[in-house]
Amino acid sequence: MDIKVTTLDGKASGKVSLSDAIFGLDPRADILQRMVRYQLAKRRAGTHQVQGRSDVNRTGARLYRQKGTGNARHHAASAPQFRGGGKAHGPQSRDHSHNLNKKFRALALRHALSSKLKDDAIVVVDDAASKDPKTSALRSQLEKLGWTNALVISGKEVDKNFGLAARNIPNLDVLPIQGINVYDILRREKLVLTKTAVEALEERFK
Q1: CATH code for the domain of 198
Q2: Measured between alpha carbons, how far is 100 from 86 in angstroms, rounded to an integer?
């Protein structure tokens, strides 16, 4: 389908055709959910760890004689029930990531793009570039366009001035085409693609 191309000044700049094989799918929530879960799990550090019984440096000598005191039988002071003892069944360092095959990840990206087009939340611009790295100037441009919450996907490299101007604007993310991903697409209201990004996506899924 055809979609209008605009400039950052809000002027019309022709049209571009979007492939139905990429943007025209019927979005499936289960595929998107699995992909978001995969991304969030993969970026978890997994460095949470507590000291277990074997990690605590305490005496291993018996606390008191086993019989005749009327108390329970105890051995080492590193047991979990004592103050300063090791934690029982506490968290240990581990990898939270799980696997999704390459075809599924590609399918999830196409479903995310299709969901944005279905919600009429995709905007195509001729280029994402600024003359000066001025945050105030870019913010006023975006406010006129109504982009208060957006993800901007540029070409292979993000324009330096545009990137500098955009990095201090809340709810605005700027990524090169290599960094496009399902989670960032879904977490922003608008998806702004440059014409270069559209061409790169069609080449990627050819």
Answers
A1: 3.40.1370.10
A2: 37
End-to-end CA distance of the chain: 17
Residues 111 and 11 occupy one common structural domain = yes
Nearest one of 40, 3, 8 to 187, comparing CA atoms: 40
Could you give the number of structural domains in the chain?
2
Indicate the pTM of the whole model. Answer: 0.83
Residue 201: strand, helix, or coil: helix
pLDDT digits (tens, 9 = 90+) for 17-26: 999 999 999 9
For residue 58, the enclosing domain spans 46-95
List pLDDT tens digits, range 61-105.
Answer: 888 999 999 999 988 999 999 999 999 999 999 999 999 999 999
Same domain, 200 and 131: yes
Per residue in 140-176, is it b (16+ CB within 10 Å) or e — as a string? Answer: ebbeebebeebbbbbbeebbeebbbbbeebeebbbbe
108 in the same domain as 121: yes
Instruction: Show the beta-strand stretches assigned E in the chain.
Output: 2-6, 12-17, 122-125, 150-153, 172-175, 190-194
**Helix (H) or strand (E) run with residue 140 in it:** helix 135-145
Nearest CA-CA partner of 7 in 97, 114, 126: 126
Q: How far apart are CA 152 and CA 139, in angstroms?
A: 14
Q: What would the two tokens of residue 139 be?
A: 């913010």
